[in-house]
Structures are given as structure tokens and as C-alpha cells.
Amino acid sequence: MDEWLEGLEPVVLRQDLKVPYRYSMGATASRFFAEIRDNGKIMGIRCPQCDVVFVPPRTTCGRCFSQLHEWVEVGNQGTLETYTQVRYQTAVHPAVAPFYYGIIKLDGADTGLAHMVGDLKGQEPRIGMRVQAVFKGERKGNMLDIQHFKPVEEEEAAGSRVQRARPKKKVQKAKRRKGEKSRIKVKAKKTLKKKTAKRKPPKRVKGVESRRKKAPAPRRKTKRKK
Ligand SMILES: [Zn+2]
């Protein structure tokens, strides 16, 4: 530091910086927000290669880099995967603290959507909680057209289970193919999930390797039962 600065109070300038700007959301995000605004529908996009449904949708698959064009409607309800509470008020938050942010996996989607969790009527959010989108009456074509996600009430929850067609169908198909219940989940998982599973317990890794070398289905069955 220069000598002449010693003991000097720093000069502080206080100003507001205004940055008005326009931002083109692009084709994919535009359709996503237009569907929410005009039809109250939440759309995802499926990767033909990975069979992963991304919500919010994206133009390119982050796993296999395929270009994505296959739009699918997902449910307005989903499962709360995780959450956090915001306690400090800052200008960047769209709500008044304290409030909750959550990651919601909508029915039919394979990825989580970040949004606020509200209308909790005094209860704490919990992981695994069924939640549903609350759409604003007047919508503008942005993420806040969904006001927040609120807990699903019992009757609505019963109705929504019927709508959760996609994951069930998938499981049934897998069942028919493989004929064994316990393996379906492992088989149906995406490549990425497989990798994570391999990394976890060392025993599984052995299982995976031996499955490749030898032939298999009955063998693995006995191993697992042990
Ligand atoms: Zn992909």
C-alpha cells in the first residue's frame, strides 16, 4: 500500500446501477414458457438416445449431446427431492424470506426443476413430499408464472397416481422383457445412474464384472439372494 494511504478512510461511492436488458430465450425455452403461460402445461423434452426427459427442457442432451426435439407433457405434480430454506432477504430472491426453495421431480420427468415450495400451512417440507404447481392467473411467460409448488392434498394425490403413466409403463415393459422384478430397476436406469451404482458398493462392481464374463441371469439371482 502507498504510504500516503495509511490512516486514510476509503472513499465509498454509493450508486444504483440500472441495467435494463432484453434476453431472447431461444426456441426451446420459449416453447416451455409459452406452454406454461398459454396452456398451463409443463413440457419436457426427451432424449431419443438416453430416453431421459429433461424438465426444464434443453436443446442438447448433456449426456450424449443429441439434439432434442421430442416434446412431452409432464405432470403438474411431482415429488420433492430436496429443499432449503432462505432466511436472508436479498433483492435477487423472488419471494420474501423466510421461504423454501426445492427441487421437484415432476411426474414423467427424469430431472429436477428448481422452484419455490409454499402454501405449507405451517408444516415443514419433507423429502418425498408430493407437490403440485400453483399457476398464477395472469401469466407472462417466465418461471414465476408458476407461483410455487404446494403440497398435494389427499384427493388430488389419488387422482394424479392414475396420470403417472410413463414411469409405470416403462417398468411393465421391463418386467415383460426380463421377467424378474428385482432387476428391472437396475436395467431401467440410465447409463449415468449405472455408473454411479458401480462406484458405490464394491460388491456390486464384482457382480457387474462377473455378469459380463459369464452368462448369467440365474447366477446373479442366487448371488443377490445371498
Ligand atoms: Zn442423451
Topology:
Elements: H1 26-39, E1 42-46, E2 53-54, E3 70-74, E4 77-86, E5 99-106, E6 113-117, E7 130-135, E8 146-151, H2 154-163, H3 165-178, H4 181-188, H5 191-199, H6 202-213, H7 217-225
Antiparallel strand pairs: 1-2, 1-3, 4-5, 4-7, 5-6, 7-8
The chain binds zinc ion.
Concise overview:
This protein has 226 residues and is of the alpha+beta class.
Which characteristics define this entry?
binds zinc ion; disordered C terminus; 226 residues; single chain; alpha+beta
Instruction: Tell the overall outline.
Output: extended
Name the helicity range. Answer: 25-40%
The side-by-side strand order for the widest beta sheet comes to: 6-5-4-7-8
Q: What is the number of E strands?
A: 8
Q: Work out the strand percent.
A: 15-25%
Intertermini distance: 70 Å
Describe the structure.
There is one protein chain. The protein is an alpha+beta fold. The chain has 2 domains: 26-163, no CATH class; 165-225, no CATH class. 34% of the residues lie in helices and 21% in strands. It has 7 helices and 8 strands. The protein has helices spanning 26-39, 154-163, 165-178, 181-188, 191-199, 202-213, 217-225; strands at residues 42-46, 53-54, 70-74, 77-86, 99-106, 113-117, 130-135, 146-151. The strands form 2 sheets. It has a 5-stranded antiparallel β-sheet with strand order 6-5-4-7-8, with no helix packed on it. It has a 3-stranded antiparallel β-sheet with strand order 2-1-3, with helices on one face. The N and C termini lie far apart (70 Å). 18% of the residues are buried. The model is unreliable at 162-217 and 219-226 (pLDDT under 50). Bound molecules: zinc ion. Zinc ion binds at residues 47, 49-50, 61, 63-64, 66.
